[in-house]
Design brief:
The protein is α/β, with parallel strands linked by helices and 436 residues long. Helix content is 60%, strand content 13%. The chain has 16 helices and ten strands. The longest helix is centred in the first third of the chain and has 53 residues. The termini are far apart. Bound molecules: adenosine-5'-triphosphate.
Length: 436
């Protein structure tokens, strides 16, 4: 027999309507609850992220925190952030408890109401005891389904709330392409650099322009030394050439091609960088204890190199940081040499190495620079003297540009002043060294 079981409405339409009258009310509550849970879940993710960011930053910079005696303040700040996350977790727990309590209560009320109303209907002979029993079974299953549905709905809303940040990130369009654009054929690639009326401000500080109408040409195969007061934007020039940022106005041309039309991945493969800041920062953090695993990981390459360099010594404990730094620098240069880039961006160290290491590093650098277009943030007088041209940066533009000797002819120029300042600094260092 292919007989379908009787529908809940066929058993007793009157009782079915009575039982299902609870559904619209539950639906309204579910919508309000769902919205609330979504909001709380989103807030929880945000505040958790803020707490993690705070702890990462402060632990990463524990030396600064310690140096300023701000441990208690930072701990209070972190406590505040974690307490807020806890508050949100309480709110979520209360909302869940309320919702599940309500759905559970409605299920039980439905069964009780069916027993009461069904008893009345049975007593008035409108319904048989068998019909009431089967109706109770149906009502029971409806109750269980509502329970399951509310639990699923609850998790779904929580997921929507937490996922909205991820979707926001997934939907973000990169400001610059990753691996698209023009590639200059190797036989045509010469490596000429040309900044044309470049204006730039960092996205995080749109009110502080770094460059305004900056013009600078570096012919292919020549060495351009860039000097300027601290904060004049020397490192920013390097960031722009690596296309970590795009100019806000004007353009940068490489062999007469606007850089924005070139494939950034290809371009970076043609640019070698030797940054001494990186080497020094890592040399410093290699002295940190193992406890700061994140910091050690960041500098894993340099740390393991420094350990390896020291390992070669007869007594590694006698190896000084200055010796390691001279060797590390040469490894960085060797790496750039193997890349064989057409364009080379160098950031010279401000701290002086000892004479022997300075000679070795300079020799390796000279070899590296041969036949390439070089932009060097120069601090050593020898580099400035040997460069084909020197560009002096100040107030967001190139204020002087020419050969070293040529620039020195203007005693009131910024270059002459910078050189005078540097030589008086060197003189005072020398006299401090020779003092008993
Ligand atoms: N990522 C960044 N976001 C916002 N501002 C920045 C950023 N990097 C640098 N700056 C600011 O841009 C200005 C120029 O910095 P830059 O490092 O290019 O100067 P610099 O001439 O290389 O300085 P120094 O000789 O001290 O290294 C500074 O005021 C600096 O605070």
């Amino acid at each position: 027999m292919d007989e379908k079981p009787p529908h809940i409405f066929f058993v007793s339409p009157q009782l079915a309507m009575f039982v299902l009258s609870i559904v619209p009310l539950l639906a309204v509550v579910a919508v309000i609850y769902g919205r609330y849970l979504r909001k709380v879940s989103m807030l929880t993710q945000d505040s958790l992220a803020a707490a993690t960011q705070l702890s990462e930053e402060r632990i990463g910079n524990i030396r600064t925190v310690r140096a300023f005696g701000k441990e208690m303040l930072e701990m209070e700040k972190y406590d505040g952030k974690v307490d807020y996350v806890l508050d949100l977790a309480y709110k979520e727990a209360f909302a869940r408890a309320g919702f599940f309590g309500l759905t559970g209560l409605s299920g039980n009320l439905i069964v009780l109401a069916v027993l009461y109303k069904g008893g009345l209907l049975t007593g008035a002979a409108h319904m048989t005891v068998g019909e009431l029993s089967s109706f109770l079974m149906y009502a029971f299953w409806v109750g269980i389904s509502i329970g399951g549905l509310s639990s699923f709905y609850s998790e779904l809303m929580k997921g929507f709330g937490a996922g909205s940040r991820i979707w926001e990130l997934l939907d973000r369009k990169p400001l610059m392409p990753f691996n698209e654009g023009l590639v200059i054929p190797p036989e045509k690639f010469r490596g000429a650099l040309d900044f044309r009326d470049v204006g730039f401000m960092y996205p995080s500080r749109p009110d502080a322009p770094i460059f305004q109408g900056l013009n600078l040409s570096v012919p292919p195969g020549s060495v351009m030394a860039v000097v300027g007061p601290s904060g004049s934007g020397k490192s920013t020039l390097v960031s722009l050439l690596l296309r970590l940022y795009d100019p806000s106005t004007g353009s940068i041309h490489i062999d007469d091609h606007n850089m924005q039309n070139l494939n950034p991945l290809w371009l970076r493969s043609k640019i070698g960088t030797v940054s001494q800041v990186q080497v020094e920062v890592c040399a410093d953090s290699s002295a940190l204890p193992f406890l700061f695993s994140g910091c050690r990981n960041q500098c894993w390459f340099s740390c393991s190199i420094s350990e390896n360099i020291a390992y070669g010594a007869e007594d590694p404990s006698t190896v000084t940081q200055a010796q390691i730094r001279g060797q590390k620098q040469r490894i960085a240069i060797a790496r750039a040499l193997l890349k064989n880039p057409r364009i080379l961006l160098l950031d010279e160290a401000t701290s002086a190495l000892d004479a022997e290491n300075e000679y070795l590093v300079q020799e390796a650098l000279d070899r590296l620079m041969e036949g390439r277009t070089v932009l060097i943030i120069a601090h050593r007088l020898s580099t400035i003297q040997n460069a084909d041209a020197v560009a002096v940066l100040d107030q967001g533009r190139v204020v002087e540009c020419g050969k070293h000797a040529q620039l020195l002819q203007n005693p009131n120029g910024l270059f002459s002043k910078l050189m005078e300042k540097q030589s008086s600094l060197l003189r005072s260092k020398d006299s401090a060294r020779s003092a008993p």
